[in-house]
Design brief:
This protein is α+β, with helices and mostly antiparallel strands and about 280 residues long. Helices cover about 40% and strands about 30% of the residues. Strand 3 (about 85-90) and strand 4 (about 95-110) form a beta hairpin.
Length: about 280
């Protein structure tokens, strides 16, 4: 390298660094051990941390809980060897974010690294997932419509709708409780899931249990831990031998009146659907 080039080297490095920082897309530099070794300001903004914090972290520190970490490591090894474009999820302060990363093997400060230039696709993924959920709901409504028009057997219709709802919501069981106009009791007309045959026909006194509370107050209710809620009627648990945790109950209405309640139960946390 010429003397002039040597003299200008710090200036060139400063210019490259300024360009690196001005790139509006997140840029990440990762070593062979999956450690972050450098990044630009856009990456820090995306990951919501400081440079000092990031340089102490590994790419797997942002792994989404419940996802296969071994699969992520295998993908990292492939990208390390061949480069390419991949969609990567990051768990940042309780929120799942997504980057569309273009990976290029490179040399940085004398070591082999991979350079990732990303595009924030978090909002696009949210819209796609919302669309998929909407499509599943439409499919459920179409299935229910076909069930109603193909048979006059109410129990068969309810069983079909409940099973589709159980699959859509990914819950352990679903049930429909209808009001007995003569006694005011709630009767479990149909149920799907484990031990559902033992629940059908079960009766709750007016206002009894979570379903009774929902019918009386005419509002949605979600209980994260049913066992800790004094409104919960555990007679069904005792009968079936199942211990349920999270229960979502929604009032069922016709144009004229309230007719009962729909219940979805799970062993984990449920979220209340929006109208």
């Amino acid at each position: 390298m010429s003397d002039d080039a040597m003299i200008n080297l710090p200036l060139r490095i400063e210019r490259y660094h300024a360009l690196f920082e001005k790139i509006t897309n997140p840029v990440l530099i990762i070593d062979a051990q999956s450690n972050y070794v450098d990044c630009n300001a856009a990456a820090l903004e995306f990951l919501e941390c400081s440079s000092d914090e990031l340089l102490k972290m590994n790419v797997h520190d942002f792994a989404v809980p419940g996802e296969d970490e071994r699969e992520a490591r295998d993908q990292h090894r492939l990208l390390w060897k061949h480069g390419g474009t991949t969609e990567t999820k990051y768990y940042v302060h309780g929120q799942v974010k997504a980057l569309e990363l273009t990976i290029t093997p490179a040399t940085w400060r004398g070591q082999e690294v991979i350079l990732g230039v990303g595009k924030d696709v978090t909002e696009r993924k949210r819209v796609e997932e919302e669309l998929q959920r909407h499509n599943r709901e439409l499919a459920l409504l179409n299935q229910a419509s076909r069930a109603f028009t193909s048979t006059l057997d109410l129990d068969r219709v309810l069983a079909t709708v409940l099973e589709d709802t159980r699959c859509l919501m990914n819950v352990a069981a679903c049930s429909v409780w209808l009001l007995d106009s003569e006694t005011g009791e709630l009767v479990c007309r149909q149920a799907t899931g484990p031990k559902s045959e033992m629940v059908r026909g079960w009766r709750l006194a007016p206002g009894e249990g979570l379903a009774g509370w929902v019918v009386r107050h005419r509002q949605n209710l979600i209980v994260p831990d049913a066992q800790a809620d004094e409104r919960y009627f555990n007679g069904v648990d005792q009968q079936t031998g199942l211990t349920l945790r999270s229960i979502l109950t929604i009032p069922l209405r016709t144009r004229e009146s309230l007719i009962g309640a729909l219940q979805a139960v799970s062993y984990t946390h449920l979220t209340l659907p929006t109208n």
